Amino acid sequence: AGQSLTGLDVVMRVVDQASSGANPAAGISADLNPAKGNQKSAALGGVQPDHEIALAIYAEGVKDLIGYAVGLEFDTTKVAFAGADGGTVEEQNVLTASGGTMLFVKQPPKGNVVSIGGALLSPTSTTAPDGSGLLGIFRFTVLEGFSSSAEFRVPRVQFRSLTGRDTVEVNVSATLSAQGAAPPPTGGLSPKAGDGTGLLRVMNENAK
Length: 208
Known about the structure:
Blueprint: H1 7-12, E1 27-31, E2 43-44, E3 52-62, E4 65-73, E5 79-85, E6 102-106, E7 113-120, E8 131-142, E9 149-161, E10 165-177, E11 199-203
Parallel strand pairs: 2-10, 6-11
Antiparallel strand pairs: 1-3, 3-8, 4-7, 4-9, 5-8, 6-7, 9-10
């Protein structure tokens, strides 16, 4: 009683079953390529100070999904968190794939971890999607002095289904490097803005 809930707590307690859910075998992948869709490009070269980086996280093999929470670890000495979005103009969040409306939550970093989450509003077996799709996009700015490499890592992800919750150990990583060709522009990952596809970014926990 009297416990203060963060936005992600609210998201994951929309349906608060104690039982296991339908997604113990589901997973995620990371994509540093700003092109539409999951390129599964977990390495990006030619990165220089002041470059803007977009890291997309995708769900894979989910069933009856109604909510999720993702915590991303990053190197605070090499990149600065610049914001997060649940979808783009070109690509909707996986939770809206079956016609549902969702709540997207982003929290400011706590140490070297930044978290996002999503939940379907009034979920049903019709609106809870199966398959794969976008969970969110983390945006970073490369700091002055960057000259080597930086790693991002998602150790685990939490999935909610109509039957319960699964915490899945995924240990997915992505790497930036100063070596190699210059990265492509991030224009393809512009934030989604009121385009009627069912994404509600109404809780940002003071994040940019």
